[in-house]
Amino acid sequence: MTALAAVPEPATPSTQADRDWAELSATAPQLTSTMRRYLIQLGTFLAPRSVDVADSTLRPFARWLTTTTDVRVVAGIERHHIEDYKVWLAARPGARPGTTLAKNTQRQRLRTIRIFLERLIEWDWPDAPGRNPILHGDIPPRPEPLPKFLNDQDAAKFMAAARAHPLPRYRLVAEMLARTGMRVSELCDLTADAVTRIGDAHWLRIPVGKLRNDRFIPLHPDLTLADWTATNANHIRSTTGSSPTTTNPRPAHRLPHRRGPSAAPPASTCTPTSSATPSPPKPSTAACASKPSPRSSATAPWR
Predict the structure, then answer these.
(1) CA gap 41, 119 in Å, rounded
(2) Nearest Cα to 249, choosing from 232, 227, 273?
């Protein structure tokens, strides 16, 4: 079976990507078929988001090839094409007015195309080039900016503001993210049995996430979900998949509440205030934008 016959075009393109590929197929059918067949193969061992990233990189590359060169098959891509593409890519406008494409974006796109060509050669596809025209030195070095974090004073102010916030949902999200190091998506995916007791301490089980593995982390004494999850398991399961960063009030019901003298209201009372109440900044954005300094007594995981 040839690469051209392996990927039939949809009768009615339903997405922008399908419409772009259909347009490219009319100009360079073999080039388009090889790229789309490659994306299908990626779907067998990469996450859907990774496949989407590859798709959004190969489509502009294919369009550039068909509009500025005479290349109509992947095997026809040569070194001078890559050199011209690098110049064109570096001059592309960036997200902000007056800027060009970020070095990280250039790096990601060139790496994606280089891996695409390398795999075609390794897989011995008939449309593979004789050698990879993208060299290792073509990939821009990874930028290494200084890490962004709150100093001890700002971190203490942030945690104090989180504890004093009138909305229990915001207090919980801020403290959970700051004290556990979870990603927002991991916080949203917590299950009813996420907390277990090991010895005298409570441990939180983080489900499989970006790193493709699950893990246990010890919980701060102020953050234990055991009692709450034991009595609200059915409600937690019914709201799984909600995002605490949206205006949907249900995600608050999935989260624990602080224990002790400053305990928040029960989960059933965690409802949003009226529209007349000013909406404070979302804690998920503030908590994740900067990592608290580990030296801060206010944000240190353990006391």
Answers:
(1) 11
(2) 273
